[in-house]
User: What shape does this take?
Amino acid sequence: MGITLLPDGAGKYVLGLDHACPRCLEPLTEPHMLLHCQNYQAKRDQLQAALHSH
Assistant: This one.
């Protein structure tokens, strides 16, 4: 599953994170998710687009 954007009321989103990276099977920490794991590239792009659109 990875990252899920969850609606949080007033047009904001919060991140729902799994506890383990399903692709790498490493502990899913923010540095791993944001810097190392290609599994989340599309999700990061979507999140950045959502943040910059408001």
The first strand starts at residue 3 and ends at 7. DSSP finds two helices and two strands in the chain. The CA atoms of residues 20 and 28 lie 5 Å apart.
